[in-house]
Every structure is written in C-alpha cells, then in structure tokens.
C-alpha cells in the first residue's frame, strides 16, 4: 500500500523540520547566528489517467486526470540572513555590523572564513582574533601600551600609544558582501565559507555604498524569534502525528484485508 511510504516520507520530513527548529532554539543566544527553515517539495506522480489525453474515439479530451503522488522530500534548508538585535556589551573589542557584510577571518589552514560574530579578543602578540584564536583579516595589532581603543563606524581602529597625546590609526577593518549570502557554507564556530553558489566575496570598508557600518561595544545576537519557533514546532509535531495516523490507518486496512475469508 503506497500510503505507508507516502506517510513515512512525511514523517521523515517533519523529523528534519523539528531538528532545524531545535537547532534554532538552541542558538537563541549565539552571537551572529542566522536561523534556518526547511523547504519541502512533492515527489514524482504516477499518472493513472493522463490529463489532456483522448478519452474516446470521438476525440473527447480528459479535462482532468488521475495522479497519485509519492510523498514529500526536503528541497533545501536556507538560512534567513536578516539583521539580529544589536545589544550593548561595554567591551571595546565587541563589534556589531549594522547592515550588510561579514567580517573576514583567516583560518589556520590558510582559508578565509566569514562571520557576523564580532566578539573579538587580543592574543599574546596584540593581534585582534576571534574567541578561537583565528586572526581578523586584514590583521590588526594593538600595542600593549595602547589606551583608549576606538573603532569608528567606517572601520578605522585607533588608539593612544604610549605617552602620545593624539590617537594613532592602527588599522582598517574591511567587510565582505556576497551576491547570494544564503549560499554560504556554515562550518561551525559562527563561521561561513564562500561557495560557488554564494559568489565571490566583494570587499569594501564599512559604510561604503550598500555596506553596513560598525558599532563598537555592541554585539548582534541571533535573529531567532522564540514565539515563531515554538509555533513552528507545534505545527511540525501535529503534522508528524497526522502522518503517523495515516500509517496506522493503512495498517488497519491491510489487516482487515488479510482477515477476509
């Protein structure tokens, strides 16, 4: 009975949907996290009567046909790259991007990754790095005797070094944009990699045309709406239950058929 396989595909689809929702909820307080959703597509159809085919020798054409679907499959799990809420942290190396763009991060293997997580630190040499020690690209070093570190909305990093009376520009933060940012590959640690689908990174200074500005002493939290996620979770649970009831009904129908004498 095809209903068993059709309902099973529905249960598997909703199981994956619940997994995505649970990951969204788990990362509600993850800096720069972007939530995911599940997109579904119906499977192939079996044509028992082809719509538009000739119904008789007189040339009559069927206005409708008979098609039986095969179930559902997951087509994609895109990330929703909308702006998350920006919160004050009062930490000088916490930086939020208001608008479009990603920070560039140099990985130990030489690859360039991208992130919306602006919770940076200084390593033993004074370089600005991520919480995992990955270097901000282009690299910026803050001297040990620097005070009054400031980061402008346009990405200029400056500080008063030693006994100087004026601030010195230590470096310039650049951010990257992508034609299709939902095509980035998430690799964990709040990092993304460029792919053929995302297109090549387009670099510029913050505040340039169509690029976001930086906000020091702030962080962007996840764009997860708890109320929406719980509503989606309830809907997924009910869909899973209905598919399981279809399987139970199909089993009872087959049982009744077997018991015929």
UniProtKB/TrEMBL annotation:
Cellular localization per UniProt: Bacterial flagellum basal body
Domain of life the protein comes from: Bacteria
Any single GO BP term: bacterial-type flagellum-dependent swarming motility
One Pfam assignment: Flg_bbr_C
Main location: other
All residue ranges annotated as the Flagellar basal-body/hook protein C-terminal domain in the record: 216-259
Coiled-coil ranges per UniProt: none
Keyword list, A-Z: Bacterial flagellum, Cell projection, Cilium, Flagellum
Flagellar basal body rod protein N-terminal domain location: 5-34
GO cellular component, one term: bacterial-type flagellum basal body, distal rod
Positions of the Flagellar hook protein FlgE/F/G-like D1 domain: 96-159
Record note on quaternary structure: The basal body constitutes a major portion of the flagellar organelle and consists of four rings (L,P,S, and M) mounted on a central rod. The rod consists of about 26 subunits of FlgG in the distal portion, and FlgB, FlgC and FlgF are thought to build up the proximal portion of the rod with about 6 subunits each.
Family, per entry: Belongs to the flagella basal body rod proteins family.
PANTHER family with a match to the protein in the record: FLAGELLAR BASAL-BODY ROD PROTEIN FLGG, FLAGELLAR PROTEIN
Name under which the protein is recorded: Flagellar basal-body rod protein FlgG
Organism per entry: Prosthecodimorpha hirschii
């Amino acid at each position: 009975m095809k209903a068993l396989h059709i309902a099973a595909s529905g249960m598997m689809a909703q199981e994956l949907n619940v997994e995505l929702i649970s990951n969204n909820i788990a990362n509600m307080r993850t800096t720069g996290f972007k939530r995911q959703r599940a997109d579904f597509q119906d499977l192939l159809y079996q044509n028992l009567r082809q719509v538009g085919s000739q119904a008789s020798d007189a040339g009559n054409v069927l206005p409708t046909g008979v098609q039986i679907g095969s179930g559902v499959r997951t087509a994609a799990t895109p990330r929703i790259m909308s702006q998350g809420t920006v919160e004050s942290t009062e930490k000088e190396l916490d930086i939020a991007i208001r608008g479009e763009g990603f920070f560039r991060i140099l990985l130990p293997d030489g690859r360039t990754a991208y992130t919306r997580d602006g919770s940076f630190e200084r390593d033993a040499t004074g370089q600005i790095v991520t919480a995992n020690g990955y270097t901000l690209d282009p690299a910026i070093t803050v001297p040990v005797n620097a005070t009054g570190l400031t980061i402008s909305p346009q990405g200029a990093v400056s500080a008063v070094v030693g006994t100087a009376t004026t601030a010195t520009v230590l470096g310039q933060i650049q951010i990257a944009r992508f034609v299709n940012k939902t095509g980035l590959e998430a690799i964990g640690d709040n990092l993304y990699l460029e792919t053929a689908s995302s297109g090549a990174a387009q670099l510029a200074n913050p505040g340039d045309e169509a690029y976001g500005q930086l906000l020091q002493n702030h962080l962007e939290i996840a764009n997860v709406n708890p109320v929406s996620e719980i509503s989606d979770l309830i809907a997924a649970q009910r869909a899973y239950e209905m598919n399981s009831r279809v399987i139970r009904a199909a089993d009872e129908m087959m049982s009744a058929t077997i018991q015929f004498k």
